[in-house]
Write a structure and sequence with these properties.
- This protein is α/β, with parallel strands linked by helices.
- The chain has one domain (23-178): Rossmann fold (3-Layer(aba) Sandwich), CATH 3.40.50.
- The protein is built from five helices and ten strands; from the N terminus they run αββαβαβαβαβββββ.
- It has helices at 23-34, 54-71, 87-98, 114-123, 138-146, and strands at residues 38-43, 49-53, 78-82, 102-105, 126-131, 149-150, 156-157, 166-169, 171-173, 176-178.
- The strands form four sheets. A four-stranded parallel sheet has the order 4-3-5-8, with helices on one face.
- A hairpin with a 5-residue loop joins strand 6 (149-150) and strand 7 (156-157).
- Helix 1 packs antiparallel against helix 2 and helix 2 packs across helix 3.
- The longest helix is centred in the middle third of the chain and has 18 residues, at 54-71.
Length: 180
């Protein structure tokens, strides 16, 4: 069987040079040029809408980036994100990128946390988990059983997940994200 190696898409215009080469540059550009224009709209099952403007996306992502750097998250470390599809997911993901970290969306479902441990073993350099506690705190309860120690300043220690150093809990209330 013959392998397809040719593209069937043809454009008659010359390739263009990108003005902005990084995500922070693109977000800053759109924040300056489109400001209060809608960047992303989240619609929930009750049909309510959360609108994120370009300015809000840039500013809140910058705040997350600064927070991650202040926590000690280093370039190329992994930030695991387990949040519902909401504006905070965007801020955490873009903020991690702006800080030089690598955001990875994760999921886990086993109540003993074995799938979370397996995921963290694969990620190796995952130093932070941003977590939605889940309905009736199910996700938090799973994580808590895997931690040897957790403190108010977000520091954690776990023999089962040795790279894991920080934890942030995101509870969505009135369009704001709070730390547990």
């Amino acid at each position: 069987m013959e392998m397809f190696t040719k593209s069937y898409i043809k454009t008659d215009r010359p390739p263009f040079e990108l003005k902005h080469r990084t995500i922070p540059e693109v977000l800053e550009h759109y924040s300056e040029t489109k400001g209060d224009g809608e960047a992303i709209i989240f619609v929930s099952t009750d049909r309510s809408r959360d609108v994120v403007t370009w300015s809000e996306l840039y500013q809140k992502s910058c705040k997350v980036a600064k927070s991650l750097i202040n926590l000690g998250i280093r370039k190329q470390e992994i930030v695991a994100v387990k949040l519902r599809c909401c504006p905070e997911w965007l801020f955490a993901t873009y903020g991690a990128m702006m800080a030089g970290a690598i955001p990875v969306s994760i999921t886990f479902t086993y109540t003993d946390g074995s799938d979370l441990i397996a995921m963290m073993e694969k990620l190796k350099k995952c130093s932070l988990l941003v977590l939605d506690p889940g309905l009736e705190s199910i996700n938090w309860n799973i994580l808590r059983t895997l931690l040897d120690e957790y403190k108010v300043d977000s520091k954690v220690r776990s023999k089962k997940m040795p790279y894991f150093r920080h934890f942030m809990c995101c509870v969505r209330q009135r369009a704001r994200c709070f730390q547990c």
